[in-house]
Amino acid sequence: MKKVILMEALAVLVLAGIMVLLLYRKTPADVPLQDVNLALTENYALTGMEPAGDMRMKRAFSLNASDFTEYLYYAPDNTMSVNEILIIKCPDESQASNIRSAFESRLQVQKKNFDGYGTDQTALLEHARYGSDGLYSWFMVGPEADSWLKTAKAVWEVQK
Hints:
Layout: H1 2-24, H2 33-43, E1 49-51, H3 54-61, E2 70-76, E3 84-89, H4 96-114, H5 119-126, E4 129-133, E5 136-141, H6 145-158
Antiparallel strand pairs: 1-2, 2-3, 3-5, 4-5
Helix pairs in contact: 2-6, 4-5
């Protein structure tokens, strides 16, 4: 009888511990984009891009920086580059579909711009990565877009 009570008490303590860990873990919404930026710049050269601000994002994506909690944007550094990283943190998940539409529009415009003469750029655009996870949305075009996305997600996972 005492063994059963002891086992039940132990099981309750283990479950309580798991619940506490689940309550205090960080979600992607808690990860500042500065951490993602640091991981990207430490691990990749990010060639063909340069840090960009509100106006460049507005011009390229028709998105207003003031609508978001924060963002990280690396724009093409010249007219022949399509390399680009945009990660946006939204105040709520309801903006994800509008952002996705902006990403798709940007991709179509870029494909049209390089159609017929920018075969290397068109190939990169065909392998663009964009999507969302909770409050975060991302758009990545470049030779290492898959790796950039894995790195960003790894930052989110480590900090959970």
